[in-house]
Amino acid sequence: MKALRYLALVTLLLSLAWVPGALAMQQAEPLAPSSQWRIDYQPAGCALSRHFGIGNGLAVVTVRPTTVFGPVDLVINSSAQWARGDRIQGRARVIPASGAPIAALYSNFERIAGMDRTVDIHLSRADVPALATAGTIAVELNGKHALSIAPTGAAAAIKALEACERDLAKTWGFDAERLAAVTVPAQPTGAPIDFRLEPSDPDLRAAAVNKTVMVALLEVGVDGRITDCRMAVSAKIPRLEARACRLIVARARYAPARGPDGSPVASQAALPVEWGIPITRISTTP
């Protein structure tokens, strides 16, 4: 099984440029890489990350698909001064050195993984090629420059991330022939489903005691509606799994996949579900 290759972190041996001395995030000079690109294979998805800058200017940048072939979160962990006191949510711009700026929304979280601030910028899958080819990338939050990075070797790193996604899709039960016939995968639209459990919920104890990360394998019709749902990664809690699928079938909507001629086609999609925190970016009906 190809996916087993990713059970360990895959290090891409790319050329590194080191920055002498401490760097401040406010500098116009892009932060240079201070680590190698690496891919992290996890049961619910793949992630690509790299360190930029050093000292007080250190930023850890992660490219994390919210689901295979779906939207992407550009996550920045930093303890730098710019990250403190910002709004919890707002508008962001990701500006490649060439090409049009990418308008996006962001969420802001405090003190995650030992860093002062985590900024989570929500991008569409169509934005990924611009990240892969950019010599430098600048990030603005609410109209203010936050940081610039020089993501050398990003094209090769993005290809490795996509290979990880393809392997994971096969592991989850995607049909290889159907997957190969899709030129544009189905994309979730709208606001996320809230999988939060209330304190009085009878399923809360089971979710707290057991491993509750699940991945649902979906059949998406030509109209973007879900026609079937089953668990590709099971939490071994049948009641919660059935509940998740009921929510997904009732509320989830996709922009349908496209075939070689551009016409909508029925396809498969995967959706990670984590009870307690509404992390899944998937649409709800109006």
Features:
TolA/TonB C-terminal domain; ten-stranded antiparallel sheet; 2 domains; Immunoglobulin-like; alpha+beta; three-stranded antiparallel sheet; 17% helix; 286 residues
Radius of gyration: 19 Å
The chain-level mean pLDDT equals 79
Tell me the strand order in the biggest sheet: 1-2-3-4-5-8-7-6-9-10
Number of domain units:
2
DSSP, total strands: 17
**Helical fraction:** 10-25%
Distance between the termini: 41 Å
* SSE sequence, one letter per element: EEEEEEEEHEEHHEHEEHEEEE
Low confidence ranges: 1-27, 277-286
Structural features, described:
This protein is of the alpha+beta class and 286 residues long. The chain folds into two domains: 2-163, Immunoglobulin-like, CATH 2.60.40; 173-274, TolA/TonB C-terminal domain (2-Layer Sandwich), CATH 3.30.2420. Helices cover 17% and strands 36% of the residues. The protein has five helices and 17 strands. The chain has helices at 128-133, 154-172, 176-180, 204-209, 238-251, and strands spanning 10-12, 37-42, 45-52, 59-65, 72-78, 89-96, 102-112, 115-123, 137-141, 144-149, 187-188, 213-220, 226-233, 254-255, 257-258, 264-265, 267-274. Strands 1-2-3-4-5-8-7-6-9-10 form a ten-stranded antiparallel beta sheet. Strands 13-12-17 form a three-stranded antiparallel beta sheet, with helices on both faces. A two-stranded antiparallel ribbon has the order 11-14. Strand 7 and strand 8 (115-123) form a beta hairpin. It is globular, with a radius of gyration of 19 Å. The relative contact order is 0.15. Mean pLDDT is 79; it is low at 1-27 and 277-286.
